[in-house]
Amino acid sequence: MSISSERTIEFPHAGLVVLVGASNSGKTTLLDKLVSEGVLLKTEVVSSDHFRQLVGDTEFIDWRGLPRLESDVLFYEYQQMSAKAFEAMDTILAMRCRLNKLTVVDATHLYAEDRQKYVQLAAKAHVPVIALVLDVPESVLLERDLGREHPRGRQRVKQQAQLLKRNLRGIRQEGFNACYILKDVEKINFARGAQPLFHDIGTGIDIIGDIHGCYREMLEVIEQLGYIEDPEGLYHHPDGRRLVSVGDVMSRGPASLQAVQFWKKHVDAGLAYMIDSNHGWKIGRYLDGRKVTLNHGDERFAAELTQYEHQAGKAAAEQLRSELRDFLLHAPSHLIFGRNGLRHVVVTHAGIKDHFIGKQSARISDYCRYGDTEGQDANGKPIRKDWFVEHESGEIVVWGHDPRPQPTLVNQTVNIDQGVVFGGMLTAYRYPEKEFVSVPAHENYANDPDSPLVRWQKKRFSPPNLRKLIAGYSVLTESYGEVRVQGESVKSDIDAVSHVTVPMEELVYIPPTMSPAPTVSAEEGYLEHPREALAYYRGQGVQTMVAEKKHMGSRAILLLFKNEQAAVEYVGYPTLGTIYSRSGRPFFGPDLGKQVLEKLNADLQTAGYFERNQTDFVLLDAEIVPWNLKARELIAAQYAHVGEAALLDRSKLVDKLKQAKAIGREVEDWLEEMKRKYANAVTFQEAFQKYCWDVDGLDEIRIAPFHTLAHSSRTFFDQSHMWHMEQNRELAGLSTLFMETEYRVITDEASEEEVIRWWSEMTEDGHEGIVIKPERFLMKNRDKMIQSAIKVRGRKYLHIIYGMDYLAPENLKRLKQRRTNKKERHALMGGALGMEGVERFVRKDTVDRIHECVLAALSLESEPIDPRL
Fold it and tell me: Residue 651 is inside which H or E element, if any?
């Protein structure tokens, strides 16, 4: 491209600009001018002369006019220095290209092999490369050389000028994205190009997954997102939000032509964006007249286009073909959305590597269309690799292409292809809200017996890909949002699940931790008191609460199946169920555990529980007593020996002090102090012994289920805690192993005072305390989850938690400064993970999807928090 009249040349956002010109052609002068004008940054200019100075302390060595021996030595030194300078410069250029930076290379570049090196470097890094050729008359070059501090010499300048003339025509065919031959740079304006793939988020974007011609479902999603149609058929959002498609808007479904026309119309109007995709690319080449095989539903688009021609005529059809061809063939491989130049979200069809983001090339387009694959399976289906496990550059990558039953968030990537054309759902992802909006398909349009959703269900019990977990990952929960799990917290729990927990398929729920009230008690002589828990819930707008007696036992999860065969559909093999602790370990030994399961199954079968509730299983969250069933070693090592030693030591000291007082020593204060401490030791000893008794078989075991979490048809997180307590009462009537839990309902000030009185009497008698819960399992205040339960432990019981002398004024003052923030946050996240895991289990989601919730909940437990809280 020859430039003669005044015009503007735009530098690319990133890539290489190779200056070509003889010495004295004004390359450095032009670049200095552009730097001073702010068109270029100083760091974006890389000069061979500068690198010669860096490696050899000078930009030029003049060997002319010297004796042969000296000139040969200097010439060799200059060649070596230049070679090393270009070697260092090429390394820097490769690094900058990898980082998607703009670099202007200031050197003569008169030989084709020198220029070809940069063309290849740019292609390898997927960045554009352009040539700026300064074609300056030889006379001007010679005149300028006379004014240089280090003249290149007349002969050398003439050789370079002639070499450039011979190369001018060939430069255009050397593979540059653009080549500009400049006769007079004074007549040229230079500007800086923007990143073509970057767009400002504005008020928000709504990204829609693979539509595949499901036009009706697409409009339903768009309307649920709040977009309103105008008289011209364009959909606008009242807040100015914009639509984004991950591609594959056509093929397989019933209305491909309508779908692609919709997106073209909205993209042209600046209301939407659509990226390239495998089906879009194939249809675009088909419309361009290229030889492609229309299959996998693409033939439906061709049939719709033929039908359009019959209705609208050949001319209209050709016009539509041309418009859609250009639209599809020029769709970007991916798009970036952010603010102030900072990337927040990347939208791609099938996947993207971190170092591809913001770049464009044929290879990148292919990768974004098809993802990372390694051949085909026995059925000819592509074997997809988990490209997302390598993502670590921080942006959220939203993608489709690979249908999954539910939106999947792994490692800051979000899959929103839920297979609407296969009878699944059409999903939209709202950003910055990070929320999903989905509508179910009206029918299975593809009617494919081996669809991705069918294959997904077939691999339900495949083990998870540990690579995507071990470095840390995210779980997207309905109630809390994203829960991020750190890699260092995961590794030990992966080992535990591999060796000591119940089988992964049966490990479906880890109960969340429970926090005391956010504020300590203002009541004198109390660390915890019901008033603080009640005040917390009143402050969250909760009108009705439930106070449940807290059993001093061990938390357990019971997954009880109707019969062994019913379990196969849920865990993959026959079993009556499992009972495990909150760390996922079997609660009982093999023999006792089998006896408990058989007894519970027999009792529930006899009572007709499974048939009456039309369920294949029941999932219970419970407390099992006595405490020493699981805590025998803890009691012996941490409580019994301490209590015995304290009683012996303090009783002897009291006796000695009494003897000293009897002989006239002034030890009254000390004696009174030791009497109080002896009484504390007695309380401590009584506190834990109350919860321990010998167990001989099943008769002494009691199970108090306080949450009926799920049946095979649904979960019960939306039910009130009163409902859960009624279920507890029903179960207690069905089996002697189950026990009822005493509770109170709180609705007003009078019922609050009654609960406080009840708690006081109960805890003074040595019971642990109560748990206060809001009306329902899941409650929110201004869209944020609130604590699902707050424990209030009694004064006597807290002796075994905080020590036998914790009520001493100086100790109590210090303990009242405790902070519960982290415990509360973990309780919220653990609750959300638990609900999410159970929902997925009931939906018969994959073990992989359920396991990520369980592993995340276990990882929360491994993070350091004051265990006394």
Answer: helix 641-662
